[in-house]
Amino acid sequence: MNPIQQCLPAGLIAATLLTGCGGGGGDGGKPLPPPAPDPVARVDVLLNHERGMNAISIDDKHAYIALTNTETEGTAVLATARGVSTKSAWQTVALGECKLPASEQVAVRRAADLKQVDGKTLLVQPAWGSADEHTLCELDQAKMTFLPKDKDFRICYETYCERMQVGDVKAVGKRWFANGGAGQNV
To answer: Does some domain include residue 13?
Structure first.
């Protein structure tokens, strides 16, 4: 073994120790300055609303936002053209039977989750009030109103029925899978 090969392991160990202890840079262990911000980055407020916003979804032509219910108003969904900007004009999408009612209880504020499944815009929401509330709705082809798609997600007991809540929907081929009712149901 020549003298360089004998010193090489010791040199590597020393360099590793110096690097691990903050040495070698002549900076005295000072942290590096933070990187300069990207001069192009900015934040624009695209929509401001007094109601809570729960979900945003974008399909081939539109962007949608789901709004919570309030003491005086039921849930709502707003839509605008896909190229969202500060000048976007937001329109209310009809919810029909899919609209959850107003609630005087602040703890019972609800809003839909919007999902894109197999090229369709779906509205998935908690239904706590009655079996008449819908938990899964689909935006019609004209993109004007949501229609209930959960008629089979009901469970009935001796004296009453209730709607099973859908938490998620996935598409496999032409079939949709949803977890209606609880985490173990598909």
So the answer is: no
